[in-house]
Amino acid sequence: MADGETRLLMLIDDEPVQSRLVGALAAREGWRTLVAESAEEALAKLDTPEGRRLGAVLLDQWVPGDDACNLIREIKARRPTLPVLMITASTSPLLAVEAMRAGATDYLIKPVAAERLLLALRSATRPEPPRFELQPLAEKLVGTLDFDTMVGTAPPFRTALAKAATAARGHAHVLVEGETGTGKEMLLRAVHSSSPRAKLEMRAVPIGGTSAGSIESLLFGHEKGAFPGAFNRQVGLFESCDGGTLILDEIDRLDPLIQVRLAEVLETGIVRPTGSQHGFRIDIRILAASDRPLAPLVEAGEFSADLYGLLNAAHIHLPPLRERAGDIPALTRFFLSRIGQQPGLRHHSIADSGLHLLEAYHWPGNVRQLQAVLFRAAVFSEQEALTAESFPQLSELLGDMEDRTESRQRGLGVMLYTDDGNLRPLEDIEADVIRLAIGHYRGRMTEVARRLGIGRSTLYRKLSELGIDNAA
C-alpha cells in the first residue's frame, strides 16, 4: 500500500453509536470504515471491490453471538492474511482461546480505550514482524492482588515491593513510575488490598485515551445543565468512593487544567462538582501510576508541581524487565501455571531452548508482554513443554542465536529438558545439581552436603557413581 493511501477497515457491528465512535477513532490513523450490520452482510462484502482492499476486520462478538468464532474461521478461510480483531463484553478466557484458535489476531474487552483500539490496529497491520508478539491476551488473566505472589528476586524489584508494602500500611498518596507493562497498576492494587482501606470502595481510572471532559465528569461529577449535553446529574468518583481509594493510571497524561483542580481537591479535601455552587468534604486516597518520570515534566512545566508534591509522599520506581532479566525463569513458570488454570488451556512447562529464547529478548513491553507471549504459545502448542519453536516470532526477531550459554548462567542453572522438549534422565539432572552446588559453595563439601540435605558419605558416593570430579 502506498504511503498516505487511505486504509479500509470493515466493522461488523449493528450498533450505530458504536460504529460512529469506532469510525471516528480509526479515522485518526487514516482508516476509512466500511460497516456491516450482520455476518451475512460482512461475508458478502468480502467479495466486493472494496472488500478485496480491506486492511483489517473488527468484529463485535455480539453480532454473530455464539457463532463469532465460526465467522472468524470463514473470514480467514477466504482471506488468510486479513487481520481479524474481535471486541466483546465477555471476560471469559475460554472465548479468548477459541477466538485465537479460530484465527483472531487480537481480542479486545469492552469498554475499550481509544489508545488500546488504535494500538491493536497498528499491531495487526504493521508490515514487519510484530515486536509485541500478542500483546492482546495479556489482559485476560486476573491481576495479582497480593505482594507475596508478585514474582521476582532482583534487588531493584524487591526494593520497589518493600516500599510499596510500607506505603500500603499508611494513608498517604502513592506514586509509582515505570515503563508500560512493568506492572504498575497491579502493584497499586496490591497496595490497596493490603491497606487499611482494603474493604472500602476502590476504582481504577485509565487516563490515557479518555477525553479531558469525560475524565473531569468522571472524577468530580457534574450538575444537570452544567454544560451542553449534561442532561442529568452525574455523581463523581470522589463522591462515590469517599473513604476509599482511586487508582489513576497514566496520570502523566492528565489534562493540565484537571491537574490543577485535582491538586486543589487533595490539598483542601473538598470537591465541588462542575456546575455546583457548593462543595463537600471527602476523604480519599490516590494511588497514581505514570509511564514517564514526573520530575522532568514538572521542570519543563508540563505537570503541576503542586500535584506532584502531593502525590510524591510515597514514590516507587518499578524497573523494566530488561533490568531484572534473572527473574524471567521464575516469571515464566509463574505465568504458565496461571495460564494452565484457564478454561480451554492445559498446563505447560518450558524447555531450556524456549527459556533461553525468552531470556535473550529485550522485552520492550516488559512483564505484560512476556505474559502475552506465553499465553499465545500456550494457546497453539500441542506439546507439554514449550520449546524455541513455540515462539516463532521471537525466533525470527532474534535469529539463530547459536550461543545462548549466558542465559543459563544467569538464571536457569540446570537444564531440565532436551531440545526436543523431553525431560533429561534423572541421573544427568542430579549430576548437574551436584556440580552446580560444588561450584556455588566453592568446593566446601561439608556445606555442599548440608545444602543438598545429604550426608558427606552419601555425597562422595554419588560423586563416584556419577563420575564427578571433586573440583568440578
From TrEMBL:
SUPFAM superfamilies: CheY-like, Homeodomain-like, P-loop containing nucleoside triphosphate hydrolases. Keywords: Activator, ATP-binding, Cytoplasm, DNA-binding, Nitrogen fixation, Nucleotide-binding, Phosphoprotein, Repressor, Transcription, Transcription regulation, Two-component regulatory system. It holds the Pfam family HTH_8. GO terms for biological process: phosphorelay signal transduction system; regulation of DNA-templated transcription. GO terms for cellular component: cytoplasm. Residues 150-379 form the Sigma-54 factor interaction domain. This is DNA-binding transcriptional regulator NtrC.
